[in-house]
Amino acid sequence: MRTVISTAFISLDGVVEAPGGEPGYRNSGWTFKDVEFLPEAFGIKGEEQKAATAMLMGRTSYEAFSPVWPDMEDFADYKVMPKYVVSTTLTGDDLVSNWGETTILRSLDEVAALKETEGGPIIVHGSASLNRALSDAGLIDRYHLIVFPLLLGAGKRLFSMTDKDTQKLKLVEHEAYANGLQKNVFDVLR
C-alpha cells in the first residue's frame, strides 16, 4: 500500500488559499508578503520531491500548476513523475503535453485503488477540496505542514468541516524557524 502525503503552506487559522499569489483572493501571496525568507524553513519541499513517486492533485491545482511547473527548475523532479488528477470534468485534451504521464481519476474509489498499488509515496500539493475529501474518506496517511504565523480569516481551508469522529494525528517531526514559520509533520493514526 502506498502512502498519501498532504503537503501544504497553511496559516495558523487553517487557510491554504492562494499562497503563491494566485488571483482572486484578498490575501493572495501571503507566503512571501511580510515573511522573511529562510531557505531552511522550506527544506522539506526538496525532501518531498526526492521521496515522492507520484503526484496527486485536483483539477483546480492541476490547472494552476501545469502551465508553470513543467518549466521550473525548482520542480524538475516532478516533471518526470507520474501525475494523477482527480476530476469529473477534465478530459485528455485538457492535459498539457510537457509534464510527463498524467492520468485522470474520476472518483475517490479510484484514488483508493491507486493507493493499493505498488510504489512509493504519493504527494498531494494544493488541492484544498481534494484534501478535505481525501481526509473524510480516510485516504491521507501523513501531513507535511509549513505553518505561517498569520491569521487570514476567510479562505479555502485544508481541513474538513464535516461532522465526523475524531481523527488522531501523531507529531513525528517538527521545527520552528527564526521567521516564525513552523514545520509540523503528522502521521494519521488509524
From TrEMBL:
Which Pfam families does the UniProt record give?
RibD_C
Q: Which regions span the lipid bilayer?
A: none
Q: Give the matching PANTHER family.
A: 2,5-DIAMINO-6-RIBOSYLAMINO-4(3H)-PYRIMIDINONE 5'-PHOSPHATE REDUCTASE (PTHR38011:SF11), DIHYDROFOLATE REDUCTASE FAMILY PROTEIN (AFU_ORTHOLOGUE AFUA_8G06820) (PTHR38011)
Bacterial bifunctional deaminase-reductase C-terminal domain segment(s): 2-182
Q: Can you tell which superkingdom this protein's organism belongs to?
A: Bacteria
Q: What is this protein called?
A: Dihydrofolate reductase family protein
